[in-house]
TrEMBL record:
<dbReference type="InterPro" id="IPR029064">
    <property type="entry name" value="Ribosomal_eL30-like_sf"/>
</dbReference>
<protein>
    <recommendedName>
        <fullName>DUF1694 domain-containing protein</fullName>
    </recommendedName>
</protein>
<dbReference type="Pfam" id="PF07997">
    <property type="entry name" value="DUF1694"/>
</dbReference>
<dbReference type="InterPro" id="IPR012543">
    <property type="entry name" value="DUF1694"/>
</dbReference>
Length: 160
């Protein structure tokens, strides 16, 4: 309730600004923190991400194997899957999550990018966990035993 003294001091202008702001928030859905970051991380924030796989990495069988092996580690988290990726690729990831009872959500927002650098699978927490390394390739480096190539000695090196 506004009194005459508030109107003299500009209280009426502040009250109408507040009403206009509320109407605008209702019509547009309110303000959102870090909208660019939310677009990149499928509606979540970077600080909540436990593990990330880009769309370009999804087709790699080694990534799928690593993801499946560590699926039990994702208990208590939620998976966000990029809905713009084909089902033939995403189906294996959904199956792995289903087998370990990890809840997942297909994100199919128009703002969600689907290029190779975009996020394909995210394992996210409800609250901030602030992990410095989130990409699956950085968290679980390739540990396969690759044969070490022997350097062929030249003719003169074999003599001496």
């Amino acid at each position: 309730m506004l009194y005459y003294s508030q109107i003299e001091r500009g209280g009426l202008a502040m009250a109408t600004d507040d009403v206009n702001q509320r109407i605008e928030d209702s019509a547009l859905g309110g303000r959102q923190t870090k909208p660019d970051e939310r677009r990149q991380y499928m509606g979540s924030l970077r600080e909540r991400v436990f593990l990330a796989i880009t769309v370009g990495q999804l087709a790699d069988p080694a990534i799928l194997t690593t993801f499946t092996q560590h699926c039990a580690d994702y208990q208590g988290y939620t998976a966000l899957l990029n809905g713009k990726v084909s089902n033939s690729i995403m189906g294996d990831y959904m199956k792995a999550l289903n087998n370990k009872n990890v809840p997942f959500t297909l994100v199919n927002d128009p703002d969600t990018p689907a290029d190779a650098a975009a996020m394909g699978v995210l394992i996210v927490a409800k609250d901030a966990i602030n992990r410095s390394v989130i990409n699956i390739k950085d968290l679980f480096p390739d540990t396969t035993n690759k044969p070490i190539e022997k350097k062929h000695k030249g003719f003169f090196e074999s003599l001496f």
